[in-house]
Amino acid sequence: MAKQLESDRILFGAVVALVLFGCLMVYSASAVLAAEQYGSSYHFLLRQVFWAILGLALMLVMMNVEYPRLASPLVVFPALAIELVLLAAVLLVAPSHNAHRWLRWGGASFQPSELAKVVTVIFLAYFLETRRRKINDWKHTLAPVALVAGATVALVLKEPDLGTSLAIVLIVAAMLFAAGMHLRYFAYGALAAVPLLYILVFHVAYRYRRITAFLDPYADPQGVGFQIIQSTIAVGTGGIAGVGLMDGKQKLFFLPEPHTDFIFAVIGEELGLVGSLAVLALFAVILVRGLRAAMRCRSGFGRLLATGLTVMVVGQALVNISVVVGVLPTKGIPLPMLSYGGTSLVMNLMAMGILLNISQHSS
Q1: Tens digits of residue pLDDT in 308-337
Q2: What is the rounded CA–CA span in Å between residue 228 and residue 256?
Q3: Closest CA to 30 of 345, 241, 339, 307
Q4: Which of 12, 148, 184, 276 has its CA 20 to 30 A from that of 225?
């Protein structure tokens, strides 16, 4: 049984700090836009606070649910079935922003791909632990993993959402590595992925334009290069200490939707290098404490689960930040616990609740 009241307090503090700071920055980034579009500067903040409260409550619940209960076929396979059904159902609804990513009920929306990441981690932790002595068995281990992960990725790609698809691939690769899969299989997978990535990027017009904008954004500064130019201007303007909270200029109708995927640019402009490094430090805490919980957990299922959840959150954060500062081409991936968005926030906090429960079992 887990030792009561012995979850990782440092990890817990880092997560809560990110959530509270995220609410503050969502307000700073969206206040003017919200007042212009909705007549209230608190429009996005109130929604983010609601989802933060719901997510933190769910995190507390998962902290008190013994994580071994997730290693049950009665949990894993129904969750996997629900995830795949939702990913298929979202393709049947009317598109929003030229993509089928959200299921909507009145004023609420749900993004199944965010659930898919968590369910994929739980499934892989369960399945790979049952095959721990046959990790490199192609027929009985790798083929089923490829089938389930491939179906999930294919449905997310159909939305289309290449960024989340690549995030799921990263999670799968990290968990297979942690489970002990031979490196040669990673090489085979990489070789097989090259032609597929080539088709997905260079034969899809808007993705190809993103690559060209990444290589030379000033070739089309008012078009496809506009977003990354405005983002790097925001980050560069902040300097060491920033221009001051709420005093950023790029969010004022220059940087598109600054409260979502590019919120780190607002942080860089308003709070400078100091604020940016503080955010990186909090994600570094999650990385270190998450992997610490994984290494100290005596259960194979717990080790894999903690590894997958840590990579899911920190990997996505690194990709988002890399996009904002111009290190990677533009992708529609939110910054965990900071970007505006209910589904992402709630799912990430649920994942952190599970990770905190695993930390209770650290020896």
Answers
A1: 999 999 999 999 999 999 888 888 789 999
A2: 10
A3: 339
A4: 276
* DSSP-assigned letter for residue 1: -
Helix (H, G, I), strand (E, B) or coil at 362: strand
Q: Please report, in angstroms and rounded to a whole number, the separation of the first and last CA atoms in the chain.
A: 12
And the tokens for 335?
Answer: 């910054």
Residue type, 358: I
Q: In this structure, what token pair is assigned to residue 92?
A: 């049947």
Alpha-carbon gap, residue 212 to 205, rounded angstroms: 11
pLDDT in tens, 289-312: 999 999 999 899 999 999 999 999
Of 234, 230, 244, 251, the residue nearest 31 (C-alpha): 251
Angle at 253 between CA 249 and CA 258, to 5 degrees: 80
Burial class (CB in 10 A: 0-12, 13-18, 19+), 288: middle
What phi and psi values does residue 349 have, to the nearest 5 degrees? -70, -35
β-pairing, 108-110 vs 103-105, is: antiparallel
41 Cβ neighbours under 8 A, 6+ residues apart? 27, 30, 31, 32, 34, 35
CA angle 87, 317, 2 (to 5 degrees): 80
